[in-house]
Amino acid sequence: MPPNGSQYYLASQDSFASTGPMCKKGQNFTEFALEAMENYIRGIKFAEKVEQSFGIWEGNEHKELKNGTEKYVRSMRKGRKL
Questions:
Q1: Where are the domains of the chain?
Q2: Among 34, 70, 80, 82, which residue carries the largest CB count within 10 Å?
Q3: Each residue of 2-38: pLDDT tens digit?
């Protein structure tokens, strides 16, 4: 492990040809790049789902939230005993 504790390290000149300039220990660059792309796509899909779900609750179905969620949560917390 490198001195700064990072899981990444710069490859030596000898291993540069096979591993590339930077890689995660025990993982080649292709695996690293695929993992990064999967995470990026997962983030995009999550953002799309959040956009699609906007406004899904109708105000008349949740009258307890008409003064705002913060007030509702605070009132619920006051009422319970810890």
A1: 8-79
A2: 34
A3: 455 555 555 544 444 555 555 556 778 898 899 999 9
